[in-house]
Amino acid sequence: MKKICLLVTVFGLMFITQNSAYGQSQSRANETDSSEITISMKRDGFPCGYAPLNEKDLSGCPAYSIVIARDGTVMYEGISSVKERGKRTFTIPVKLVKQLIADFERIKFFELQDEYTEKQLPNGVIRTVNHSNGTTITLKAGNRIKSIYNFYGAPQELEALQKKLDAISKHLQR
User: Fold this and answer.
1) How far apart are CA 64 and CA 30, in angstroms?
2) Alpha-carbon distance 123 to 100, whole Å?
3) Please, what is the Cα angle at 44 between 100 and 41, to 5 degrees?
4) Which element (helix H / strand E) includes 26?
5) d(Cα 69, Cα 78) in Å, to the nearest integer?
6) What does the H/E/C string look like for 78-139?
7) How many CA atoms lie within 13 A of 87 on its CB side?
8) Distance CA 13, CA 26 (A)
């Protein structure tokens, strides 16, 4: 009988310890792991209702991508309707990267929908558009990764974050 009680006690303690560790790992999983951070954004450039006439035509929707590393390194690739085509690398202050990470956390990026292609109006009507510049924003934090495609209808907080990311390479776009 003593052996059975001892076994029940040992298994009970193991169960409590595992659940306690699980709870701690779950709460940590909700925080952004800043040891490995990569932020990227890709602007499709279409279907925005306008096709550029030639390589120098900047009146269409810009198509480019940026990848931002934790150390402030930014890799840019201009594709079309941008002033600078091709690949470029530059740096931004680490403080700005930290601010961006804080913005991702504030809007709970990992909890947002995977795509936004329409908007429900207050009266219940669903509005769609057929001409916008589709954008994919991706955050890789440690072993967590999330991509969101925004064509139309994203929350204002995500739109604001997209504008901040857009501004980082604005000098190369127009």
Assistant:
1) 30
2) 34
3) 15
4) helix 2-29
5) 18
6) EEECCCCCEEEEEECCHHHHHHHHHHHHHCCHHHCCCEECCEECCCCCEECCCCCCCEEEEE
7) 2
8) 20
pLDDT in tens, the chain (174 residues): 444 443 334 334 343 444 444 343 343 444 555 568 999 999 987 656 566 566 666 667 888 999 999 999 999 999 888 888 899 999 999 999 999 999 999 999 999 999 999 888 899 888 888 777 889 999 999 999 999 999 989 999 999 999 999 999 886 665
* pTM to 2 decimal places: 0.74
- Of 174, 119, 169, 112, the closest CA to residue 139 belongs to 112
Biggest CA pair distance of the chain:
87
